[in-house]
């Protein structure tokens, strides 16, 4: 859907309103349509359009913000796999640290994020000029959304555009991360009284509530020291600086806001970690702020995070497959050594008749009783969730277009690569590139790399669509932020308590007697760093974490030692060429 369509197509805007305001109960479409009339740019529609930018590829697609926050780290890499995923080198640039100002990923994400800024400004103007009863609430949400898009842009690019929404003749302003971070914090804090409590005034995890703002403020305070001194060569950031408001230091404010969330009683940790990323997570107990996704054939959710790792011969049904793109690196996989029994590492699937698919060659078949929703009786096969390595097993697609069966059960067989048919589908944790500086595999090497199946593959709408809500802030991440803040203040005991709360609250599947995770008995900086990764892998947090811990510049698989200027991305050259107010970031001239 093109951006302009949001303001011209009535049915889309009605849907956006329903999506924005619907929670556990359905609203009346007729009433919404009467309010909307023929003008799709009313305040509610404009606010819905600003929210909608969070989806539509920005935070839900592997080529969106994910590619900047994860493919540049040890958690994810998208190599060229034989004849696939070359694409002019744009994916390899992210991990090899060779991106330039004309890289398509850099440019596309700048456009998405600044479009989010523009939509938020449009919403602010529309709401300010209105007399609607919800004016105060809607205005607060629009302003926090503006802050969120601006913060993300400043995090990634160091600069962001702004124009006074109430003055059409206002000049373009260029905001800088080191000076704007304090204003973003104080702006959001000032909006807290006008935001709704979670679950009140028709709010849910798809809208910015007070609680979502607490999580956002925790994030900003946690990263404030980096914003103010981004290119510090020693990564010796000042985490004990006095907070911009309130009392104490930045870390004290992280502890304050995360504690409000932890102690609120509104959220609780899932004992089944993978429920946070499941097809039916719309009522997830941990979700504080998430992108609501639905397959409704108007604005379909994205299946990208599930689809991107699966091999083309891994089929959840006869109508679905993966794409054999991304994987994790040996470095991140190694952080899990000794922790493969952690409930967050991976999880086998149990079918209704008690059959377990354990992906180890011991399951000859599974029942065909699980059916793809809204399909013509297509059997649904469930792969192991989490981090998946080693030889792979699953159903085979026959020439007839159906899955191979044994009687009325789906046969499970050893799998081979679709585009290298004699190559066993063996997801090796190691990555053996011919040239260690280039993430390029020969065609018979395209099986390599442990895969991340954290987000459930939703087979309902083909390969690309999904009902899985994508968490932006959830309770597990809040515990990691408080633990890090405690640790940086020198209180390792309280930090370990929070990490152990995460570890022991999660439980393994009943195949392993629902055993809880094991508690830590000691904590150092390396363990803290690893524990944050265990909880938050593939959730768009790794790049900021690596910068905070001084690891982003270090060499790794297909990555050289890098200079501090790489901690931000360049302003796209196309923007520099037409907007004289922008100056290129250091190191990219």
Automatic annotation (TrEMBL):
Q: What's one Pfam family here? A: SusD_RagB
Q: Does the keyword Cell division apply?
A: no
Lineage: superkingdom: Bacteria
Segments forming domain RagB/SusD: 314-588
Q: Which PROSITE patterns match?
A: PROKAR_LIPOPROTEIN
Keywords from the named record:
Cell outer membrane, Membrane, Signal
User: Is Nucleotide-binding tagged as a keyword?
Assistant: no
Entry's family note:
Belongs to the SusD family.
This protein is called RagB/SusD family nutrient uptake outer membrane protein
Q: Which organism is it from?
A: Flavobacterium psychroterrae
